[in-house]
Amino acid sequence: MAPTAGPTGASVELPPMVREATLVSPPRPPSGRLPVTDLEGYRALYEASVRDPGAYWAGVAGELEWTSGWPASPVVTGDLADGFRYFPGATGNVSANCIDRHARRHPDRLAVRWLGEDGAERSWTYAELLEQTARFAQALSDLGVQRGEVVAVFLPNLLETFAAVHACFRIGAIYNVIFSGFSAQALADRIIDTGARVVVTADETFRRGRPIALKSTLDSVLGQLPSVEHVVVIRRSGNPQVPMTAGRDVFWDELLARTATLADPVPMEANEPGFIIYTSGTSAKPKGLVHSGLGFMVGAYHNVQLSLDLGPEDVYWCTADVGWLTFPIFELVGATACGASMLACEGALDFPEPDRFYRVVAEHGVTKVFTAPTLLRMLARYGERWAQGHDVSTLQLVALVGEPLDAKTWHWVQDHVGHGRLEINNTYGQSETGSAWTSSIVGVTPAKPGSCGLPLPGHAYAILADSAAEAVDPGGAGREGSEAAGEPVPTGAVGHLVLTAPFPTLFRSIWREPERYRTQYFSTFGPGCYASADAALEDPDGHLWVVGRVDGVINVAAHRLSTMEMESALLGLPGVADAAVIGVDDPTKGQVPVGFVTLAAGAAGSLGEAQLAERLVEAIGPIARPKRIFLLSSMPRTRSGKIVRRLLRELVVEGDIRGDVTGLEDPEVLVELRRELQSLDHPVG
């Protein structure tokens, strides 16, 4: 393929992962529920939406219910760095939109079916979800929770999690969901920061067959938490040995039994805070990202509409944990706003056997799934035999977010799970954006294996250079560039991905740290650009490729190499299940790549370090030859499925872990990885 000409007239050689990707048309026609039906219609809608984002978002919000001040005029005020407001003065309630309006129209429609790891199963209709939500909202009020106060929600995926979150929305409290796998100290840090007076938790939950003692974890740090006055405990396991302190602790069912009335939804202004979600820290303090309630709902509703197109015929499953923002976007708020019938699952998706995913899809007739690329790589690693005997023909769509999906896994899933009938939608977003703002539009826009799709309407962005040498050939050959800092890079070149206009789901501040908000996100390119800290390129078809963090682009002898491209090359080898690449300092070249690989079942012994290194040289060039490639049994992952490359770097460069590990799915994996690396004579510094 000839080099592509970018907007500045410069030529950029596309990297192989982009050059070899082909457009894949949706396997099904548009449903008719969406505002566009073809690619040209999408392009026209997108251009109109970024010319007048206020008008566009007012149209989306107008599909929902407002109490007063609607239609809002003006629709949007302020700017990115110093504070923006969507629909100022308009009031409504998230809970009323997500639950009440569906309970009025379809009270018997399934809202949520919960599946326990141990085979337990429960479900609520929209009428039942409304009753539980409104009763718990009144109970919170009776406990003294006021509008604007924080309620800590230390819960796994349960039916009551939906009610707890929407009860906070209902009375104007701010909720903070805390990942149920966090350590006691990580839990304490977040409650101390928010000053929550009420904590909602469960006695226990289960993961990989083991009970996880949530209430005991909370009890172990309550002495550090003077703000906590009440602890509400959901009986998940019913373990009678779970300690309860009279006057402070109360079981959920007993609290609701003594609550006689149902709380009405409180009208909230569109920009009032709705929830706080913390990012995991490294050595720095975790950031409490503040999202508005109604603004987030409008954007999440829009995101789910276009990226999933849920209808009354769908059985929908978001596999994420509630502690990962994907679950509030794509299930707790976005999917309920669309009136979806949802599944919520406890525990690991490959326990007790690797066929749990297929079994759930087959038994419940799941039509659409939102998950992480990690799940698909896990299915591929175990092999197609685990799918045998399970009829998953109802499955029409798999959407993804979290980290880039490699083309090999994309095709494996299409061939062995979808048999050519699946729409695979790889999206991109951040906790800060509150939405997956690049995506396919279901049934309308084509996909490209490996890309993050197209920008959704209402989201204006740019890919910028940070210096005159920034816009380079991402394939590693390099070129001379003339772009000044802050100028757009040519099509096909890697640069800093930024957002150039506010939209409703974008976070509004960092809890109690407004100056940190401005410094961290709006100092790189000025107050008019939200700096994502992600590196990306746009291909000639307009698809976005997020190639890693800006600090994950490795500078080898003045050649900038994308870690995503190197990982994609490794994943292209048969037998490679997972791959991660980092850069380490080198006295001659500045930086050099170091790789980590896990092999698929049955592939042990078929690949060695030399073969893997040659794969990088063949795919990218001699400049990409790694200093080492380590074959490992597993990778350190967050519960959302992201490989924590920072921890791999610490293990091989420093020999130990120094950063935050609270977000890991299984912190014990670090002990095994340390042992494996020590046995491999691992020094790379």
Calculate the terminal CA-CA distance, rounded to whole Å. Answer: 38 Å
Shape: globular
CATH architecture of the domain at 125-266: 3-Layer(aba) Sandwich
Mean pLDDT: 90
Describe the fold and architecture.
The chain is of the alpha/beta class and 685 residues long. Among the domains are: 125-266, 3-Layer(aba) Sandwich (Rossmann fold), CATH 3.40.50; 573-679, ANL, C-terminal domain (GMP Synthetase, Chain A, domain 3, 2-Layer Sandwich), CATH 3.30.300. It has 19 helices and 35 strands. Helix 4 (94-105) packs across helix 11, helix 5 crosses helix 6 (159-171) and helix 16 crosses helix 17 (609-620).
Summarize the structure.
The protein has 685 residues and is of the alpha/beta class. Helix 5 packs across helix 6 (159-171) and helix 10 crosses helix 11 (326-337).
Please describe the structure with a list of short key phrases separated by commas or semicolons.
Rossmann fold; disordered N terminus; about 30% helix; 35 strands; GMP Synthetase, Chain A, domain 3; eight-stranded mixed beta sheet
